[in-house]
Amino acid sequence: MNVREPNPDLFEIDVTRIPGVGPQRAARLARLGISNVAALLFYAPFRYEETAHTADSLAGEGQISVAAVVSGPVSVRLRGKRSMVYVPVRVGARELRALFFNQPYLRHQLSVGRQVRITGRYDSKANTLIASRCDLRKDDPMDTGLLPVYRVTEDLPVSALRSIVASALRAFGSQLSDDLPATLRERFKLIPLPTALHQLHFPADAEALRQARRRVVFEEFLKFQLRMQGFRRWRLNVRRPLLHDDALRQGARAFVEQLPFPLTRDQEAAMSAVLSDLAQERPMHRLLQGDVGCGKTAVAFAAAAAVARAGWQIAYMAPTGILAAQQLGEARKFLNVSGLRVDGLFGGQPTAHRRTVASQLADGTLDMVIGTHALAAQGLRFDRLRLVIADEQHRFGVGIRKMLREKGRQVDVLQLSATPIPRTLALTLHGDIAVTTIRELPPGRKPVRTRWLRQSEEAVALKLVRQELSKGHQAFLIAPRIDSDPEGICLESVQALYERMTEELAGWRIGLIHGAMPEADRDQTMQSFAEGKIHVLVATTIVEVGVSVPKASVMVVYGADRFGLATLHQLRGRIGRGAAAAECVLLADPTTDAAAARLRTMTETHDGFLIAQRDLMMRGPGEVLGERQSGLPEFAVGDPIRDFKIMEVARDVARELLDGDDFWLLPEYGRLRAIVLSEYDVHSDS
Ligand code: ADP
Ligand code: MG
After folding, report:
1. What is the Å distance from ligand 1's center to 577 Cα?
2. Closest C-alpha to ligand 1, atom 17
3. How far is the CA of 291 from the centre of ligand 2 (A)?
4. Does domain 51-149 match CATH 2.40.50.140?
5. What is the dihedral of CA 228, 229, 235, 236, to 10 degrees?
6. Strand 63-70 to strand 115-123: parallel, antiparallel, or no bridges (unpaired)?
7. What is the topology classification, in CATH, of domain 449-605?
8. Which of 154, 346, 588, 611 is such that its CA lies 20 to 30 A from the CA of 196?
9. Is the dihedral of CA 232, 233, 235, 236 positive or negative?
10. Closest ligand relative to 289 C-alpha
């Protein structure tokens, strides 16, 4: 069974079925990742604009437009051919009069209780709104107190998206079925889903919005928790053949002994925690977190060497093909020595080679494979897989769960993360996962010197870049993406920056990568940069994860106020990986205090833990561009930090449901149950 949430049916309905959406708009929606009605309805605004609904709006100068309710009988005065219609109205909590000239027919339309939108000028002395225009308000979902603001692209303005959402709500809002049973809704006083979605997009007021979010977020989090906890229970039910403790230790030791450096104390501790997990009958699920460069790979490889020595196979999942290739290089250097047979499986390899690797995994010739999420593919068979190492998983465990469903729940999991989060948070988010943290960096690390300059001081940054280039070093220039900028603030696009730099930095070879390029082109450029064939790489945050370019010693981040702390810190981690001192320049003219605080934090500290903590504290919704939420799971509406209280409730409810009988037996839990069962289902791809 293939369970999609939250509303299977609306996921099947193409956006072109929404009145007012043709192929062109559909294509534009697709660029926002919206292809069906459900995706649209769950595309939550990231903030709201107050419309002229409250009495406050009367304070505006000149023409104003307010929503009002007729609050008393209309009176008409005639003077010759001219007429004046007086209408008592209520705007917010304020009573006033609206005055219309020469529109006597209004008397018949404006009965008490009628909702209208009046445009005109407010005379505060006379407490009268001298109206130039009166619109009768129908049951229009867009006519509310708060107007939604969405992330959009340049060719799909917010106003257009608003009307598409309104149209979808009108056409499909009543078809939304509720996955939460009435018992849960009543117990937690949650409003029905159709109302919630309506209010999420077009809230009547702040309280309505709060109730709407609470409802939608609870459902999201509950499903997340059911999935995580359900999956965990399914895994814990399995018993496996025990591995030979001595073999494990010998394998790890052999690997560690041939490293050119001793492990740090934290690495040692992490390694022994992992080794003792590997020897258990129950499958391991351990999160190994630590700042960029703290040496997680060595710990992961030690685990791999141990498992291989004990006679089992290892799969190492990297987030991208380039990183997989880079890790394969490391593995060949350090793991082959201990007799471990390793190969890679990723894009760009000749088909014949891929076929060989696949067959060697199936017949057991290979001990270890390094690749991307594609390792979870159906049809790739292992002879005796025992350990999955998942490096830099941004998509919280989805790849891992798929891997285990495909290859067997008995497999051990070691998850690596460079964006540390507090243990309590990790436990709530991952279920009862084991967490190991490496705090110590290997000795001799020089922190990247970080400066914050105004955009107008770009010349200073470029001077530094030229200096470094002339020493034979390399440079990163990072631009924020402009295509998802909802405010239309003019930030230079990555393409424009690239073109300008080909002139500014004439004589140096300059490369460009961004998310809209084909992956193969991106990989090739990245590869050339890593090999030093390109001197300057102009890029978006796509370079954020992992790739190591030892000669890169300088980075300039344009519009740095638009990035979140976690992103900035990850970006900065791309340089200073070699011997040379490295410097990072943040160019920014921040418009908010929060943004300025982020920039200051970056210049003050290099401690990934401190930064992660501040990031969690300071994160305002929707303030930064395309932020990948510091290694946290992503939700359509909920924010695991801001809405942590709801997450805790969801966690407890999920536990209670899974422990009880009702959940497994009663039809009203069918939809939620299906989500848990799909985690147990070997060939589900949800
Ligand atoms: P990350 O935790 O970001 O994955 P890596 O495992 O890539 O970090 O390690 C970063 C660099 O530090 C690598 O070049 C690695 O060889 C080196 N390194 C790891 N552990 C040590 C150590 N104990 N002493 C010295 N260098 C180390
Ligand atoms: Mg790493």
Report:
1. 10
2. 295
3. 9
4. yes
5. 150
6. antiparallel
7. Rossmann fold (3.40.50)
8. 154
9. positive
10. 1
pTM above 0.85, yes or no: no
Domain ranges of the chain: 1-46+159-176, 51-149, 242-438, 449-605
- pLDDT per residue over 615-634, tens digit each? 777 765 444 444 444 456 66
Domain range 1-46+159-176, CATH architecture: Orthogonal Bundle (1.10)
Q: Which ligand is nearest to the CA of 574?
A: 1
The tokens of 102 are what?
Answer: 């020469």
How far from chain centre, in Å, is Cα 378?
A: 26
Among protein residues, the one with the nearest Cα to ligand 1's atom 9 is 295
Judge contact between 375 and 369, C-beta under 8 A.
yes
In whole angstroms, give the CA distance from residue 479 to residue 540: 5
Give the closest residue (by CA) to ligand 1 atom 15: 295
Q: Which pLDDT tens digit goes with each residue over 279-328?
A: 999 899 899 998 888 899 999 999 999 999 999 999 999 887 888 888 99
- Residue of the CA atom closest to atom 25 of ligand 1: 442
Which of 257, 264, 291, 297 to probe ligand 1 with, by most ligand atoms within 8 A of CB?
297
Region 466-487: what's the mean pLDDT? 81
Residue nearest to atom 10 of ligand 1 (CA): 293
Q: How far is 525 from 555, CA to CA, in rounded Å? A: 17
Report residues whose beta carbon is within 6 angstroms of any ligand 1 atom: 261, 263-264, 267, 290, 292-298, 418, 442
Domains 51-149 and 242-438 share a fold: no
